[in-house]
Design brief:
243 residues, alpha+beta, two-stranded antiparallel ribbon, 10 strands
Length: 243
């Protein structure tokens, strides 16, 4: 006689960058094992790979994480955790004032974490002579390829070239996928410094999971502020996989 099958509830969310609705289920023991193994490795690449695998599985392969901006994948994963483990996560936050040594336990409501996505026009830049360029936001593949937490000029420049979607003029639209990385780098090098600064500002301010916390340290009685940005901060300060 076959063993009984357990029913799993499904939920729905809107992907921040597109507004499209996606069905998902909480992650199960097999996915939790994948995540815990990645966390134990302390490898950013392993954690990103695990997030991809879990998002694919929990959306029944309806979402390919490599095709979406990194912040979309993080947002989906956040909701998977929310439905799988609980709506709150316990953060252990040390006081930031030198010599204090105090800390607090802060219960963060994950439902309050949002991603503010600018309009589509914010990815479009006119660079002169009737020529423009449209960028996409960095994906999880870009996060693996580049250290996107340390924006050196060379890394950021190469990342920007990889994130070009199209280049257009008054008569033609040129798909970036039809051109080499070197050709795209050369195009960026031909842009004026003023226009390049605007493009760099976009990449320096890519949408991200973000939450601000302020509290009074119980030991030194001084005000403390934290800004949590991206999954890295939640993994660092939280027992993220525990209820």
């Amino acid at each position: 006689m076959p063993l009984p099958k357990l029913s799993t509830p499904f939920y729905e969310l809107k992907i921040p960058s597109t507004g499209e609705k996606v069905r998902y289920r909480p992650f199960l023991v097999r996915e939790e094992k994948i995540l815990l193994t990645a966390l134990e490795s302390e490898s950013t690449e392993a954690i990103l790979d695990a997030m991809c695998e879990v998002v694919r599985s929990c959306t029944e392969d309806k979402v390919d994480p490599t095709k979406y901006p990194l912040f979309d994948v993080q947002y989906i994963f956040l909701h998977l955790r929310l439905r799988s483990v609980g709506e709150t996560v316990e953060l252990n936050l040390p006081c930031t004032h030198e010599g204090c040594g105090g800390s607090i336990v802060y219960n963060l409501d994950l439902e309050k974490i949002k991603v503010d996505v600018p309009s589509e026009e914010s990815r479009k830049f006119e660079v002169g002579s009737g020529v423009g360029v449209i960028f996409r936001y960095p994906s999880i593949l870009d996060a693996k390829k580049y250290d996107t937490t340390e924006h050196t000029s060379s890394t950021l420049f190469s990342l920007m070239a990889d994130c070009i979607e199209t280049i257009y003029d008054e008569t033609e639209v040129y798909q970036a996928k039809d051109h080499t990385h070197e050709e795209l780098l050369s195009f960026l090098e031909s842009i004026s410094a003023k226009q390049l600064k605007k493009i760099m500002d976009m990449f320096e301010n890519v949408p991200v999971l973000k939450h601000e916390i302020s509290f009074t340290c119980p030991k030194c009685k001084k005000k403390v502020k934290y800004t949590l940005e991206g999954m890295e901060d939640f993994f660092e300060y939280a027992s993220f996989m525990k209820p």
